[in-house]
Amino acid sequence: MATRGPRAEAGNKIRALEMEKMSLEQLKSLKKQSDLEVNLLQDSLNKIRTAATRLEIASTALHDLSLRPQGKKLLVPLTASLYAPGTLDDADKVLVDVGTGYFIEKTITEGKDYCDRKINLLKSNYEELIEMASKKKNIADEAGMILQAKLRESSAST
């Protein structure tokens, strides 16, 4: 996470001054839009977390597979809940799902490297999304506070 310094605080003050000049409808719209963006970013964060977990499980499975001797009997997953008995024929090569129905034959080491690269990419994307979500959340909170203050002001004057 980035640290908040004088530059970030100055940016927040400028943004708050700009928001104070907005009408009630503009503030409501800004708050609604910011909240929507925060929710979308949260969904993306959850999907990235899920994908990273699956890749970590796959990497662990590749490690476990490399320890099994050729000819070993095992259960092969056909779906998430359906397994069929099988025999390990070639413990040196695996098929890696690279997306949209495409599979590439790789060695176990290459498969683990692929998983590790994808995990690192997802983690860097995750960090960027957290930063973006935090900024959007701050904007939504500021807009909400200014909106509430303006509503109190207008109700007190009438």
TrEMBL record:
It comes from the Eukaryota. This is Probable prefoldin subunit 5. GO terms for cellular component: cytoplasm; prefoldin complex. GO terms for biological process: protein folding; response to cold; RNA polymerase I assembly; RNA polymerase II core complex assembly; RNA polymerase III assembly. Belongs to the prefoldin subunit alpha family. One of its GO terms (molecular function) is unfolded protein binding. It comes from Phoenix dactylifera. InterPro entries: PFD_alpha_archaea, Prefoldin, Prefoldin_subunit_alpha. Pfam families: Prefoldin.
